[in-house]
Structures are given as structure tokens and as C-alpha cells.
Amino acid sequence: MSGWVARLGRSSTVHVTFAFLAMGGWALFANRVHPLPRMLLAGVVQGALSACLTLYLKSAVERFSKRFKGSAAFVAPPLIACLGSASILIAIHALAATPEIFRTVAVPLAVSTSYAAIYNYSLLTGKGK
């Protein structure tokens, strides 16, 4: 069973699907007081964005963690990933006319920034290799 669980844990498809369902579900909840079509659009948009950002964050942190030295190596990669994610999330939700933009992106942005910081730390300390 542990081999099966380990394979699931390494699967990009599992990570992307989980991001879509979890953060799309959050967007549904964050927009629950609005009419169903707007709530559903917010959920689909956030789910798709979270799925794409999951792939972006991993590669961005890997790329930027190699470019910085010293204490900047611990701060800059997750900060750059956070700013990039925030820009993308807010811009696309604004284009999609999501009613509760900041509530919608708050949790996904917190999760993605935490992931970027932890993954960056693991790369820099040799625990992510």
C-alpha cells in the first residue's frame, strides 16, 4: 500500500486534480451568496487557475532558487512566486467578473505561497532533492 500511496503523492495529475477540486470548491464557498451562474464560474475559473498554478509554482521556485544566494535565496523565490500568482489570480478573476475576488483568491494564494516557501526551503537545505 505504501508504494501505491507514494506513486499517488508523486503524480502531477493527482496534484493538479486536487488543486482544481479543493480551490475550485473554496471559490464556490467564497461566492455562495451570489447567483448560481456567477458562483459556478468563479469555482471553475479558480479550479483551472489553481491547477495551472500548481505546475507553475514548482518550476518557478526551482528556477529562482538557483539564481539567488544567501538570505535572498530563502525569501526571493517564494515572494516572486506569490506576486506572480496574485497578479494572475486577480487579473483573471477580474476578467471573469468574479463577485468576491479577494475572498476567492485569499485561500489559494495563502496555500500556494506556503507551498512555495516550504518547497524552496527544502530545495535550499537539500531535503527536496
From TrEMBL:
This protein's UniProt keywords: Membrane, Plasmid, Transmembrane, Transmembrane helix
Source superkingdom: Bacteria
Record-annotated membrane-spanning stretches: 12-29, 41-61, 73-95, 101-121
Protein's name according to its UniProt entry: Transmembrane protein
